[in-house]
Write a structure and sequence with these properties.
Layout: H1 2-13, H2 16-23, H3 28-31, H4 35-39, H5 41-63, H6 69-82, H7 95-105, H8 107-124, H9 127-146, H10 149-167
Length: 168
């Protein structure tokens, strides 16, 4: 399953928000990874949509490479977004591509993740910690809904880069 992971990694590594920032004369590596805040609503929303699409596309292409290819391709896209070789292994928080991957793999995973994020954010008013908790809960959600060891590994591979980026 290395090929779907590498293809997903390549797709995820394309720094869309960074390119939008460069077009506006801003360096998102210095200003922070939040394209909406740094660039404004229109480019920020476009970056969000395109980053989520990278995750969906990685899953779709990976599924053509084998029964678990979509899971591996999606995980690769999230790792590529978080650790882009084009940005010196730096990157975004990986939430948008992770959302796209979850939507493509099983929309229930996305709904569970969004519900947990909303609840934790409402209770504690700490979005970074809420995102970290969701990333850490992904293996459990994936294992419960997918009910296979492959889904547990998928949840780990998907949640780990998100968690690492939210600990920084």
């Amino acid at each position: 399953m290395l090929l779907p992971f590498l293809l997903g990694y390549f797709l995820g590594s394309l720094p869309v928000a960074f390119w939008f920032g460069a077009l506006r004369g801003k360096d998102l590596l210095r200003e922070g990874p939040d394209a909406y805040r740094a660039l404004g609503p229109v480019p920020g929303f476009l970056a969000l949509i395109l980053d989520a699409f990278k995750g969906v596309l990685a899953v779709a292409l990976g599924e053509g490479m084998g029964p678990l290819g979509g899971l591996w391709g999606g995980a690769g896209a999230v790792w590529g977004h978080a650790f882009s070789p084009w940005l010196g292994l730096r990157g975004g928080k990986a939430l948008a591509p992770a959302a796209g991957v979850l939507l493509a793999v099983d929309p229930r995973l996305l709904l569970l993740s969004l519900a947990l994020f909303a609840l934790l954010h409402l209770l504690f008013q700490r979005p970074r910690r809420a995102a970290l908790a969701v990333a850490l809960a992904l293996p459990l959600f994936a294992a419960l809904l997918g009910q296979t060891p492959s889904h547990l590994l998928f949840g780990l591979l998907l949640g780990l880069p998100v968690a690492l980026r939210h600990l920084q």
